[in-house]
Amino acid sequence: MADGTHIFADAPLDGLVACPECDALYRAAEVPPGSRAVCARCHTVLISPRRHAGMAIISLALASIVLVAGALWFPFLRIDTRGLWQQATLWDVATSFPVGPLLIVSVAVTAAIVVLPIVRAALILYTLVPVVFDRPARPLAARAFALSESLRPWSMAEVFAIGCAVSLVKIADLATLSLGPAFFMFAALVVVTVIQDQLVCRWSVWRSISPV
Amino acid sequence: MALDLARLTTAVTAREAGLVACRRCTRVWPMGTGTCARCGSRLVSRDPRSLSRVWAWWLAGILAYIPANLWPMLRTRTLWQEQSNTIIGGALELWRYGNPGVGLIILVASVGIPIAKFFAIAYLALSARRGARASPGARMRIYEVVEYIGRWSMIDVFVVAILASLVQLNVVARIDPGPASLAFALSVIFTMLSAQAFDPRMIWDGIEAEAKSRPGPRSA
């Protein structure tokens, strides 16, 4: 019957995994690199280790910091019409809402496309660099990784990328548009972010930074 | 799979095994433990107040969504005219005069998705308490879609930010953000918080109770 008390009674607690989405309980086993362990009833991915993932994640995190910084520095988009032109950097875009109540929107946009991508990359570096180089984990590594995980939905580089595409079409008949270097850096940031999130096996990270 | 799933017709949950699971790092602790010693998260086996938080954010999201559609999202000034557009007005204009595809993207992201999300969250919260005809698997899929899709509604806010920063050509053309951008951004944020407050484990609790009340084990 569904009373599982006896089944897991002998297992040490750190050898168990509970699905965060449906609470189903499993015994963790060695999952070979490249394959995944999935919750049998809700299909949430529980364990998905990959070979050399640590080094790849660190490089991608470094790359995303460089890309955001570069995207802030270089021109992002430029329009030309009737001899007039205007160009905007990513920073101009993020802070384009005037003072007053709309300033809140500026703060939110800046956080979503500039601050949070950098903060998340920094937190991941802080968490994983010691682990990958076989040093003891930093004292606040667990805090840092937990924070990075909870910020994940609020970091919106890829949503902003679609927003760019829509804007391009909207302005197309008003003016000629050209894409600056920052635009391509931002596009690269989207790719880097998506790949990085795919590579992180949360279970392995937790076990390596805080093996309680 | 490498997970040793106890071969029961219904899975054993951490709660049934007398354990409380950490939703952040999947570690389990004896029932009654307050914080996870591995990642520092607060441990709650099932949070009875989770649904009231869901409803509070849900209501805030709906309240912000109303002015988001009534107030202007964009103010466009050109040599010949000055014009304020609401979200729907702007999308319809794109649809009619420019590019129906992009108009459709805006309509889906700013109208279709938010409204569908309000219904989906309300359905999940109601069915968590009263049970539902839809299977837990189906409701779980709804929850995953809601969680995944919430952020994409921000597209329209980003479009306003890009246009307002770029189109500032003095007298020739000028685009400024309208107050709806704030209301809409808040609505998206509140709805995301509402979805995050929902505890999906409640979707599955129903079938445990059902399995227990049944005489004898089911065959798979």
Question: Which short descriptors sum up this protein?
Answer:
heterodimer, A: 212 residues, alpha+beta, 2 domains, 3-stranded antiparallel beta sheet, two-stranded antiparallel ribbon, 7 helices, B: 220 residues, Butyryl-CoA Dehydrogenase, subunit A, domain 3, elongated, disordered C terminus
What does this structure look like?
Chain A: Keywords: Membrane, Transmembrane, Transmembrane helix. Chain A: InterPro entries: PqiA-like. The complex is a heterodimer of chains A (212) and B (220). With 212 residues, chain A is of the alpha+beta class. Chain A has two domains: 13-47; 53-209. Chain A is 51% helix and 13% strand. Chain A has seven helices and seven strands; from the N terminus they run E-E-E-E-H-E-E-H-H-H-H-E-H-H. Chain A has helices at 53-73, 90-94, 103-132, 141-151, 157-171, 181-199, 202-209, and strands at residues 16-18, 25-27, 37-38, 45-47, 75-81, 84-89, 176-179. In chain A, strands 6-5-7 form a three-stranded antiparallel beta sheet. A two-stranded antiparallel sheet of chain A has the order 1-2. In chain A, a hairpin with a 6-residue loop joins strand 3 and strand 4. The radius of gyration of chain A is 22 Å and the shape is elongated. The two termini of chain A are 31 Å apart. The model of chain A has no long low-confidence stretch (mean pLDDT 88). Chain B is of the alpha+beta class and 220 residues long. Chain B has two domains: 1-45; 47-213, Butyryl-CoA Dehydrogenase, subunit A, domain 3 (Up-down Bundle), CATH 1.20.140. Chain B has a four-stranded antiparallel beta sheet. Chain B is elongated and about 70 Å long. Mean pLDDT of chain B is 85; it is low at 4-9 and 215-220. At the A-B interface, strand 1, strand 2, strand 3, strand 5 and strand 6 of A face strand 2, helix 3, helix 4, helix 5 and strand 5 of B.
